[in-house]
Amino acid sequence: MIRNLRELWQYRALLWNLTQRELKARYRGSALGFLWTFLNPLLLMAVYGLVFGVIQRNQIQHYTYFLFVGLLPWLWFSSSVGAGASTISDRRDLLTKVRFPAQVLPATVVLTNLVNYLLSLPLMIALGGIAGIWPSWHVVMFPVVLFVQLVFTLGVSFLVSSLNVAFRDLQQIVTNFLTLWFFVTPILYRPDDVPATFRRAFLIVNPMSVIITSYQGIFYEHRLPHWRALTVVTLASFLLLWLASRVFEQRREEFAELV
Amino acid sequence: MDAIVLRNVSKEFRKKTIRREYTTLKSELVQFLKRRQSRAAPMAVTSALRDVSLTVPRGRTVGLVGRNGSGKSTLLKLVTGIYRPTKGTVEVNGRISALLELGAGFHPDFSGRENITVNGIILGMSRREIRERMEEIIAFSELGDFVDEPVRTYSSGMYARLAFSVATHVDPDLLIIDEILSVGDEHFSRKSTAKMEEFRRAGKTILLVTHDLASLESHCDEAAWLDAGTLKAYGDPAFVVSEYRKAVAESEVHAETTPGHPPVVAVHPTGRQPRSGAPAEVGRRWGTFEAEVTSVRLQGPGGEERTVFDAEDSLEARLHVDADASLAHLSIEVSLVSADGTLLWRSIQPMPSATHASATLTLERVGLADGNYRLDVAVFAEEGRVCCDFQKGLHGFAVRSSGSSPGLVRIPHAWTVEPPPPSEAQAS
Asked: Which residues of chain A neighbour B151 with C-beta distances below 8 Å?
């Protein structure tokens, strides 16, 4: 894992340049350009707000804001993993023609989506402001949660992107699995809405639910994250990243031959 | 210190398809379970390189030649570190810049300038180096104002020029080039050759794959010839190139005189089939076979059997003929035909009536331009009225000369240049 991350650090210039390029390329040529960074999550929020806030009459106060707090970090995670799955298998041009640390590719995807998330934060705060909710001192924990999610997302991305080179079915499986994962994570609803019998199991096996509820705690409920759960998730994320790095290391030799 | 040391390097690739299916989760799982059961599941493997040992001293320019699929690119990728050897070790000393493909990582929607930055980083330059060399790179590429236009609007020549100039400004110790110097127009290709020469003078090591044998001879210190994954020859470029050309010519002659399609059997009204050599076949061998050419042997000046000749060599064709005793007025016919089917020359020689006879045709000097030639032989009876055995395209040879000249033939010639008369010399 150390070697993996050290190489990433060595190639940080490349990582950063590719990220910049991804960000610029994403909306290049479209009329609204960079505005889509804000429009995309807003429109998605409008859809969920309509279905669950207006049609289903959800009882949660300031539902659209609540939705936004959880939806934005989820988008960071799901776009990273979803796009990350094929990030190595799609870059035949780079992998077979230049010597190049392959982990830069999934890392670029994760970083690009992280920047996107950070850029949409002002929008989220503005939206809270309309509802009369302003960030409290609890935001000091925000970088911590952000870091945990970064480690977890990197771990999943490394694992999925390296395995997808040999097993192309994975990217299809991942896409579908992410939909399921989205609905079992308390983004559209509160953890309390889950029937008590399996509420605990629900939260323990899903690191993303701990991470998302931590964000909701900080920005929506004005309380600190559940520190014990967050510690467990932190350790689990590092374990995952370590494991993913090992798998990545073992498989990277075959990348150039199999893509 | 040596720049590149390959020790007994072999590279095998697992075949990607199993029963023409791609490996999927399912097939891998099935394979895994099968291996559990039967322990040894043989894996389909292709061998790209076999036990190659090669040492390139620092500051040398080495050219790699070989036919398509002989393992040249695999070798370059092993040296670059994109592949790891299955067996053996690869040792490389110094910073590598590999031009296996021009414009790795170019993004069509970005300007030339933006792509220089990313491509440069990918090739191993630091951001500072790129900033420092940016103007130099742009100047070398001769793109002018186009450098700020998106790359997708470039012509392929412009694209290649931009990519080549980034790659050559990396300032590597070891430059690896895979058949790409032929990009761009005449002017740019001269410029890139000059750049290569500059690298050579600066004492850099260069490893390049090329099909331009003439430039290989003039620009490389050493040459290596790969054939079917093994190193056939390594050393002086002139020697390696001539060996390689000979081998290519031999295999071409072989390919041209071996049928590539299922034969259509020709049966003459006499119903006879030849007793020796190729079977009767429409368009290749026909006749009554009352007499037949049993063997054709091409010999060089020393009497050794050959298929490749220099234009200055002598050539002897020895033919053996078997004939029925009853036949009279036999004659042999030999035709020299070029690769495009033009009859260059034909000669007919009467033969004595005998059951076994042999004849030798001697050409004092081959005198033909480089190329592959067919030698069609035939034996006739009754003063050429009855075709007993016509063999078309069954025999052939190639001409490969040192210092080729254009044209169809190499006429024996001499030049005499007169010095100017003394009065003129004084005047000037």
From this structure: none
